[in-house]
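ugh ok so i messed up the first submission bc i forgot one of the chains. this is the corrected input, ALL of the components this time, i swear. 199 residues overall. if the numbers dont match what u have on ur side tell me asap before i send this to the collaborators (the ones from the other lab, u know who)
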Amino acid sequence: MSFSLPDLPYPHDALAPIMSKETLEFHHDKHHLAYVNTGNNLMKGTEFEGKSVEEVVKGSYGKNAPLFNNAGQHFNHIHFWKWMKPKGGGKIPGELEKAIVDSLGSVEKAKEDFIQAGVTQFGSGWAWLAVKNGKIEVMKTPNGENPLVHGGKPILGVDVWEHSYYIDYRNRRPDYLKAFVDNLVNWEYVAELYAAAAK
Ligand code: MN3
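and heres the new structure output, hopefully the right one now
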């Protein structure tokens, strides 16, 4: 099994004006595709050939940086497209909401901390909600890293590489993050991952 680019779960123009068609054309069709192709080239003839993306991410961390970077980004983007939906950011399903309040104090605080993690990630990277030690935590990681290599299971992530927001928001990363939380997050998918991670 090699990596392959998944289709977007909605048309390229479906998230506009929060995230434009042009951004998704570059981000999905070019950037994500490049991680897929480079990852496949780097896996050729190695022990990682035929493994799942999660296995490649965990197995290459700290051992094969070029492969890890591309496999990590492939994993992150597979979920990133599904973490968004048109007219997203609405009500959080009950069980997930309860878990967020239990772990992080309140939904408002969780959203603030998540946005702040993205704002303060210096340079390229991601901000996360992840299940770790039975609790939901806010995390941030550089480049293609994700909570899988830090003992956590990611349930929501936002890409803070400039390619994710520069066309629509220029240098205003905080505005992009607020718009993502308020208008894009697919909380049903987050709840699905939470249910699987909390088992
Ligand atoms: Mn990206």
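quick check: The chain has two domains: 21-82, 94-197. that seems consistent at least. The CA atoms of residues 5 and 74 lie 8 Å apart.
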